[in-house]
Design a protein that fits this description.
- This protein has eight helices and seven strands.
- The chain is an alpha/beta fold.
- The protein has a domain at 16-187 and 195-233: 3-Layer(aba) Sandwich (Rossmann fold), CATH 3.40.50.
- It has a seven-stranded mixed β-sheet, sandwiched between helices.
- α1 runs parallel beside α2.
- The chain is elongated, with a radius of gyration of 58 Å.
- It starts with 15 loop residues before the first helix and ends in a 7-residue tail after the last helix.
């Protein structure tokens, strides 16, 4: 359920004049919304979006608050009206998506309001328009009086600043001053077809105006008429009478509060007298406590002298300790120097032994290679000797065979054959 907080208006939950003040801005915009694609940025409860949808081709209404969007969807369902939850500084629409953007009482709530104007310029068609309103900071601050700054507003504008900032984004800006003023109507009982309006000429004073409304565009705009909105339900005198009755009721309540406050004040005075008596008793007790404190200070002074003596003894002990520590530090430094020298000797010895071991290893490698070569030659010569021995044996066998041959023996007898 949406709740009226003073910033988000809910029809039926607010004074009718306050509702008319908000509806007037939407009726101002309806004149420029006919047959167009409209974006209502910061639509709130959606009542103004429904007014725009009566004449627009389509209306897309956005608000950052989910409860506002939920309320609007439930109360203003129209075929050409869509409500979406979205941020005004991050509009989820394509470039040039709208012909008209309205943003009533929104810009003062935005920390990044320049980012909002940048986004509006992006989503507007080249011939599109922005209608934006904001309260006059000078009048609004004065009207709030002792209530202080509005906690919902981040940045409020005066006329010059509002105009200047809008022209940073739109080259053509038409400024209007919105004021909730008194008027008198003469309306025929039988409905007529024409309306005549007289607005007395007066020099507009921006600093005294209630609200500023600007119509911004990229191209020059034609016409700059005064717009007068007379709501169907509006009776300023009756509303004032109701307001006066309400104030009288509040005054009676405050009188009751005043009577009660006076009774409370009398009771407070009696309590005050009791407190004074208690104060006098406590003062006497305090004086006794002060005398006891003085005696205690004397005792503390004697103890302080003893503490000074102990501190001097402690200082001497610390000096002796420093000397002992200095001696130990010197001995440690000497031992460290000796350790460094021994370490250097060990490292040098290790380096020398490593070099000699490398030399011995190299000589052993050469000796091993020579032995392997000698062993190979020895094996080769042994094999050669064995072959010679085998050949010798074979020759001896052949020689024995020849010697044993009868033919050889016969040839030797007759002088033939080889000499063996």
């Amino acid at each position: 359920m949406a709740e009226f907080t003073g910033e988000r208006l809910i029809p039926g939950e607010v004074d009718i004049d306050l509702l008319n003040e908000h509806m007037a801005r939407y009726h101002f915009a309806v004149r420029l919304a006919r047959g167009k694609r409209v974006l209502d940025a910061g639509c709130g409860a959606g009542y103004g979006s429904a007014e725009l949808a009566d004449v627009a081709e389509s209306v897309t209404a956005i608000d950052i608050a989910p409860e506002a969007v939920e309320y609007a969807r439930a109360h203003y369902a129209l075929p050409n009206l869509a409500f979406e939850q979205a941020s005004c500084v991050e509009l989820p629409f394509g470039d040039g998506a709208f012909d008209l953007v309205v943003a009533f009482e929104v810009i003062e709530h935005l920390e990044n309001w320049r980012g909002f104007l940048q986004e509006v310029r992006r989503v507007l068609a080249p011939s599109g328009q922005l209608i934006v309103s904001t309260p006059n900071r000078l009048y609004y601050t004065e009207s709030r009086g002792p209530h202080g700054a509005n906690p919902f507003h981040v940045h409020e504008f005066d006329f010059d600043e509002f105009t200047r900032e809008l022209r940073e984004f739109f080259p053509h800006v038409s400024m209007f001053l919105e004021n909730h003023i008194e008027g008198v109507t003469f309306q025929p009982h039988d409905a007529g077809h024409t309306v005549e309006v007289r607005v007395d000429a007066a020099e507009p004073v921006p600093d005294e105006s209630h609200f500023f409304i600007a119509v911004c565009a990229h191209r020059p705009q034609i016409g700059n008429p005064t717009f007068l909105y007379v709501p169907r339900v509006a009776n300023v005198l009756r509303e004032r009478e109701r307001h006066i009755a309400k104030l009288e009721g509040e005054l009676a309540t405050k009188d009751e509060w005043l009577d009660k406050a006076q009774a409370d004040l009398a009771e407070f005075d009696r309590e005050h007298q009791k407190l004074l008596e208690m104060f006098r008793e406590q003062k006497e007790e305090l004086e006794q406590s002060n005398r006891w404190a003085e005696e205690l200070n004397v005792a503390l002074g004697a103890r302080g002298a003893r503490i000074d003596e102990l501190q001097e003894e402690l200082a001497r002990d610390q000096e002796n300790a420093h000397q002992v520590v200095a001696g130990y530090n010197a001995k440690i430094a000497a031992l460290e120097q000796e350790n460094r020298e021994k370490t250097k000797w060990a490292l040098d010895t290790e380096e020398r032994l490593t070099a000699e071991i490398k030399k011995i290893a190299s000589a052993l490698e050469r000796t091993t290679a020579s032995l392997e070569q000698t062993e190979a030659e020895l094996q080769e010569r042994s094999a050669w000797a064995l072959r010679l021995e085998e050949e010798k044996r074979q020759l001896e066998e052949q020689l024995n065979m020849v010697r044993a041959s009868r033919w050889v023996k016969l040839g030797r007898k007759v002088g033939l054959g080889p000499a063996l």
